[in-house]
Amino acid sequence: MAGAAILAAVSIAPDLDLLFHSHRGPTHSAGAALLAGLVAWVLTRRSAFAASPLPPSPGLRRTGRRDRRSWAVAVTLAWASHVVLDWLSNDTRLPVGVMAFWPLMRDYHKAGIEMFPAISRRYWLAEFWVYNLKAVAVEVVMLAPIAILVVGINKYRSRGRSFGPGDPRPPSAGAADTGGTSGRRGRRAGR
Ligand SMILES: [Zn+2]
For residues 80 and 82, what is the distance between their CA atoms, to the nearest angstrom? Predict the structure, then answer.
């Protein structure tokens, strides 16, 4: 769960540029997403840090090389998802779009279609809440199926792989039946 919280924080981190009075600039780019993944890669390096500041990677509860790689990929994708969603959303502030290809290009890009309505910042207007609640509802309806799918895949993949200290079954037995219902049944019986 800690992993999911970190990835949620990563996915909103690009908007920290608002603190510097810029919006959808270099932080909203493929370059920044790759940099974020690189930072995760460095942070999970065991030789550099006695204990990794990141918990076991989401989905893959393994340690070592594979864990590092999945953290780097997960952080890159979480950051990039923000860029893609902003690229797809309505933008009422200039310059319109996101600086998608920074540092290679500094021009702003915007999708031809708008999947998400703009968020109103005019909180002094009476329709502020109605308008923004509608915008949030549209986002939830469009993104919930994706979120449910990702959580489902992660649950399926981690099944039979995670073994707590109190679990009587050795990890080797779990590795033998990772696929299908047999692993699930065996895990339940072990509890
Ligand atoms: Zn943004």
Answer: 5
